[in-house]
Amino acid sequence: MATAMAATAAERAVLEEEFRWLLHDEVHAVLRQLQDILKEASLRFTLPCSGAGTEGPAKQENFILGSCRPGEGRADSARGRAEPGGRESEDSPEQPATALCLPRGQAVEAATVGFFFFQIQDARNHVSQAIYLLANRDESYQFRTGAEVLKLMDAVMLQLTRARNRLTTPATLTLPEIAASGLTRMFAPALPSDLLVNVYINLNKLCLTVYQLHVLQPNSTKNFRPAGGAVLHSPGAMFEWGSQRLEVSHVHKVECVIPWLNDALVFFTVSLQLCQQLKDKISVFSSYWSYRPF
C-alpha cells in the first residue's frame, strides 16, 4: 500500500511539473505562433494606398466581375469592376471605386462605395482585437492557472469566429433595406429607378447583384406578399417602397474571387485549431486528479 501511494505521489509530482512547464513555456510558444499568424492575416486586410515616402502610387487591385468594356458581353447582363484601393482616413477607411455595366448597356460609376467593404473592415477589427488580447500576455507574464489560459483562448476564439463569420455569413437584407442603404444613390449617373444594387462579401468572393424591378399596378390581380430578408432575392419577390408596390422581374448576379480573402480564412482556421489544441492540453491535466488545480 505504501509503495502504491509513493508511486501515486511520484506520478502526481511529474504531472504537476509537466503542467507548470505547459503554463510557463508552451503556452507562450503558442501565443507567439498565434500572433505571427494573425499579423499575417491582418496584412491581408491592408488595402493598397498611396502614401508619403513611396516611390509612386501603389498598384490598385482591380476585381473584374465580368467585362465592363463598351460593346462587350450581353446587353441583358450586368457586369462590374471594383477597385477597393484608395486613400485611407479616420472617417473613411476605404474609398473603393466601382463601375457597373447595367442591363441595357448603361454604364455608371461610384467613386466612394464603402458600403460593401464594411464586412472586411469589421473582420479586420476583430483580428486586431484578437492580436491585442494576445499581446497583453507577453513573455514576462506568468500564467498561474489553467483557467487563465482557457479564458484567454475563449476570448481570442470569439474574436476569430466573429471575423470569420463576418466574411462567411453575409447580412440578410430585405429589399426595402437595400433600397434605403444608400448604395444605389452613390452612382453617377444615377441608377434608373427600376434598378437596385447590392454588393457583399461571401467567403472569398466579391458578389454584385442587380435587381430589375417593375411596378405593380393598383388593379393587379397578384397576391401581394412582401419578401422577407435574404442574401439573394429571387424573381417574383415583392416589396413596398414609398407609395409603390414593386416586384423583382430579373436578377443579375456576378462575382469574382479575391485571393487574399481566401488566405485570411485559412489563417482564421489554423488559429482556431491552435487555440483549441491548447485548450485540450490544459483540460487533459484535470483528468489526473480529483481537485482542479486551475
Oligomeric state as shown: single chain
What is the number of E strands?
Answer: 8
Order of helices and strands: HEEEEHHHEEEEH
Please identify the structural class as seen in this structure. alpha+beta
Report how far the terminal alpha carbons are from each other: 29 Å
Radius of gyration: 27 Å
**Major sheet, described briefly?**
4 strands, antiparallel
Please estimate the helix content.
25-40%
Q: How many helical elements?
A: 5
DSSP strand content:
15-25%
Strand order in space, largest sheet? 1-2-3-4
Mean pLDDT level:
77
Describe what you observe in this structure:
With 294 residues, the protein is of the alpha+beta class. It is 40% helix and 18% strand. It is built from five helices and eight strands, in the order αββββαααββββα. A four-stranded antiparallel β-sheet has the order 1-2-3-4, with no helix packed on it. Strands 5-6-8-7 form a four-stranded antiparallel β-sheet. Helix 1 runs antiparallel to helix 2, helix 2 runs antiparallel to helix 3 and helix 3 runs antiparallel to helix 5. The longest helix has 43 residues. The protein is elongated, with a radius of gyration of 27 Å. InterPro entries: RAVE2/Rogdi (IPR028241). This is Protein rogdi homolog.
